[in-house]
Amino acid sequence: VLPAPAEEQNGTDGAKAPKVNCEERNTTGIDRFTLQILNVSQDLMEFLNPNSSDCTLVLFYTPWCRFSASLAPHFNSLPRAFPTLRFLALDASQHSSLSTRFGTVAVPNILLFQGAKPMARFNHTDRTLETLKDFIFNQTGIEAKSDVAVTEEDWEGPLPSVLTKGIDWLLLFSVLFLAGFVMYATIRTESIRWLIPGQEHEHQE
């Protein structure tokens, strides 16, 4: 006889086993559970232990992306909801090689790592504390603390919820590439004109 779905979820051998079996960190002595933002010189790989099965949720964001800014207070509150997991954030424009490596084309992008290996990507467009808690629970089986809500402090940091004016490097690169191509094409056209018979004698005087 097949067990009822409720028994299946509560049973230790139920089919609802977590997709990622995270080793929960020891929280003894930690009084403040907060998000860590990597600066430009810090490498994500130094913060992820390849020999461990502990889990880290990593956010790729940019300070001038309005979706990153609206997600910020929700992501800031997550470490309190899941004290046994680690939470990191990095500015994707400062860590472009990592963005390429993990295929984070658009921001904000959230990856769940086990050790140093990416295991799951958060694909929901509704980026709230509740959808993030559901995502973590569905992947790891770890339940969020029920009393955690987004506070005023979460709006202030550590991840900024206020947009900063920044340079869109991709747009700038595109404009420079286009300008360079136009210059190259113009120079090539000029050099071809020198080779066209009939125009040659004008330059021999």
Please name the fourth-level CATH homologous superfamily of the domain at 36-156: Glutaredoxin
- Fraction of helical residues: 25-40%
* Order of the strands making up the biggest sheet: 1-3-2-4-5
Q: Biggest sheet, open or closed, and with what strands and sense? A: 5 strands, mixed
Number of helix segments? 7
Structural class: alpha/beta
Morphology call: elongated
Number of strands: 5
Order of helices and strands: HEHEHEHEEHHH
Instruction: Name the CATH architecture of the domain at 36-156.
Output: 3-Layer(aba) Sandwich
Weakly predicted, low-confidence segments: 2-15
Give the averaged pLDDT, no decimals. Answer: 80
Distance between the termini: 102 Å
CATH class of the domain at 36-156: Alpha Beta
CATH structural fold name of the domain at 36-156: Glutaredoxin
- Rg calculated over all Cα atoms: 25 Å
Proportion in β-strands:
5-15%
Descriptive labels:
alpha/beta; five-stranded mixed sheet; 205 residues; elongated; Glutaredoxin; single chain; disordered N terminus
Could you characterize the architecture of this molecule?
It is a single chain. This protein has 205 residues and is of the alpha/beta class. The chain has seven helices and five strands. The protein has a five-stranded mixed β-sheet with strand order 1-3-2-4-5, with helices on one face. 23% of the residues are buried. Residues 2-15 have low confidence and may be disordered.
Outline of the structure:
Residues 1-141 form the Thioredoxin domain. 37% of the residues lie in helices and 14% in strands. It is an alpha/beta fold and 205 residues long.
